[in-house]
Design brief:
618 residues, alpha+beta, five-stranded antiparallel sheet, Beta-Lactamase, 25 helices, 44% helix, Rossmann fold
């Protein structure tokens, strides 16, 4: 029985294709080729060769030309596309067919490389099984040794290591992980690891599974590194860790992940200590900057560098009071007229106290706008109000450990007096816009030229605050009550002017008599200004004092007032003016300016009336 060549071609187990190289078409293909490529025979022979290799046309041309030129050629670089769209890894063995004048035909013998590899593995397994029991035992020993080496590696590792499958279940845990977490391998294996050690964030909030970087390795197949999270130990304590979650793949499919972590608790504590130290340094820097600004301001303010000058009994009594109260932390209230040297007394108290190494912070309460009092005294947090671009330290915090001089304390608004009383009693306050309570240790020295007792009676000053301030009152005596100190003070101020102007200036007896005859309503400050003006106007060292010829009051018995003569004190006049303005405002319905306004009724400028309303705290 004869078998035709066509039958041999058709029944060959190797895929074979006949192509027309000149016309780019498939002439014929056997059943094995149709099965390999996934095409029906009728459809395959209607397909162009270039369509099977749509993205490899240059490689196809090179292969075809090589076959035509050499007669036979082999390549594994061409990958025909299966009917379902996937590329096939094959080996082409092409040979030229002599077809006379009908064109040049090429016979392609196609070998499936994937199938060939599978057959090689099967052959190796068959050879292995043929080796008998001895070969099996040797292989078992090899695998056992590999497993033992892997376990030794896991045990010797310095980091905690555990594995999870694609369902999040623990597959293995090394001894370091057991020691760090407190869980044994038996307790963790086969359980959802996230719900056991990774269920809660450092801030106490719930940690969902779908946000866990360890589990994210299953979905995106990427390595995830985290530097600052916590794992929860068996005893409920948090363990600060850094970890890496690396996906495990089997045949390009992610089947789990290996997590390597280390304890960074000590580093975390060190970082927190460093952060706290840096914050403290920053606060100290801000504090020193403000202290420097205040000290520079104090340098600009002219003060008596030699301290309190005078030999009168009034000055000596003041010095004795300073010596008594300075070593204590008692609050001091200095009263007296403007210009009598209340600030000098405050400085003398501070310099003689145990707080002299810390600054004396001065606050002029009369110069601070009402709306900024609280911020100036207690500071504010960033964003507490418009313009609060950064945290600001208040005067109380700046004076911590030192002394705070509240000049013109009677001008503090009533709404802030309660907060001032609290810090005097408890040493605690809050910055504006901040809930944190801060503690300070500050010695208060207050000064005023007002009659605080009368202000308490008129309900313009809190009585409890007055008694808290007036623990140790000191009166600064006016200059007219210690005329014997005028020559000493004048000479002291003149010496400073002589040094500044580099000329010798002296006081004559006539100059001293002129100065002692004057009443000095501006007290020592006025005397200092008069001396400076005379030094500027001096000619050839001669001083001339242009003072009103007002005799100074003599130390005689005060004259008894005439009962028939009536008069009003300054406080009574202020109260009368206050009531008069209130009446005008009532009649005008609260209107200040314009026709029919209170200013029109009182026949004064609206700006003047507004100033008096503010001064009288209406």
């Amino acid at each position: 029985m004869l078998i035709s060549r066509q039958d041999i071609f058709e029944q060959s187990p190797q895929a074979q294709i006949v192509i027309d190289a000149d016309r780019d078409r498939i002439v014929d293909a056997n059943t094995a080729a149709c099965r390999l490529l996934g095409y029906d025979h009728h459809l395959l022979v209607q397909t162009k060769v270039s369509h099977l290799h749509a993205e490899q046309l240059p490689t196809l041309i090179v292969f075809t030309q090589a076959v035509l030129a050499q007669g036979v050629y082999r390549t594994t670089r061409l990958m025909p596309r299966h009917a379902l769209g996937r590329e096939l890894r094959v080996e082409y063995f092409g040979s030229l067919i002599d077809n006379g004048s009908d064109g040049r035909l090429i016979l392609l013998a196609v070998n499936d490389l994937v199938e060939r590899q599978r057959r090689s593995i099967d052959d190796a397994a068959e050879d292995f099984m043929g080796g008998g029991l001895t070969e099996w035992q040797r292989a078992e020993r090899v695998f056992r040794d590999i497993e033992r080496e892997n376990r030794l590696i896991l045990r010797a590792a310095g980091e905690g290591i555990y594995g999870v499958n694609a369902e999040g279940k623990t597959t293995f845990v090394n001894p370091i992980a057991e020691r760090l977490l407190g869980w044994s391998a038996e307790e963790l294996t086969g359980r959802d690891i996230h719900t056991i050690i990774h269920h809660t964030r450092p801030d106490g909030s719930h940690y969902p599974h779908d946000q866990c970087p360890i589990y994210a390795a299953f979905s995106d197949g990427a390595v995830h590194r985290v530097d600052n999270e916590i794992f929860w130990c068996k005893d409920g304590t948090p363990l600060w860790v850094e970890y890496t979650s690396t996906p495990i793949r089997d045949r390009n499919v992610v089947v789990g992940a290996v997590v390597v972590f280390r304890d960074v608790s000590e580093r975390k504590r060190s970082d927190e200590k460093l952060h706290a130290a840096l914050m403290e340094v920053d606060q100290l820097r801000q504090r020193l900057e403000l202290e420097n600004a205040y000290l520079q301001e104090e340098i600009r303010i002219e003060t008596n560098a030699s301290g309190i000058v005078g030999r009168s009994e009034a000055v000596q009594a003041t010095l004795r009071q300073i010596a008594l109260v300075a070593p204590t932390d008692a609050t001091v209230l200095i009263t007296g007229e403007s210009g009598t040297g209340k600030e000098l007394i405050a400085r003398a108290i501070h310099e003689a106290s145990d707080r002299k190494d810390r600054p004396l912070i001065r606050v002029n309460c009369a110069a601070i706008p009402r709306e900024l009092f609280e911020s100036e005294f207690f500071g504010h947090a960033k964003g507490a109000f418009t313009g609060a671009l950064r945290d600001r330290i208040g005067r109380f915090e700046l004076a911590d450990g030192g002394s705070l001089f509240l000049d013109e304390v009677g001008e503090i608004p009533p709404e802030l007096q309660g907060k001032l009383l609290r810090i005097l009693q408890e040493g605690q306050f809050e910055r504006v816009g901040e809930e944190r309570t801060r503690k300070v240790d500050v010695r208060i020295i207050a000064a005023t030229n007002l009659d605080l007792k009368r202000a308490v009676q008129n309900r313009r000053f809190r009585e409890d605050l007055y008694f808290r301030l007036a623990v140790f009152p000191i009166e600064s005596v006016p200059l007219r009550a210690r005329r014997e100190d005028i020559p000493l003070l004048a000479q002291h101020f003149l010496a400073r002017q002589s040094l500044a102007r580099r000329q010798d200036l002296t006081l004559s007896n006539a100059n001293i008599q002129t100065l002692q005859r004057y009443a000095w309503p501006g007290n020592v400050r006025e005397l200092q200004n008069v001396i400076e003006r005379a030094a500027i106007l001096s000619r050839h060292g001669k001083l001339d004092f242009d003072l009103p010829d007002t005799p100074a009051p003599q130390k005689t018995q005060p004259r008894q007032p005439d009962p028939a003569v009536t008069f009003m004190t300054e406080s009574q006049m202020r109260q009368l003016e206050r009531e008069n303005i209130l009446s005008a405002l009532h009649c005008s319905g609260g209107k200040i300016s314009g026709k029919g306004g209170a200013a029109d009724m009182l026949q004064m400028k609206p700006t003047t009336l507004a100033s008096r309303i503010k001064a009288l705290m209406i």
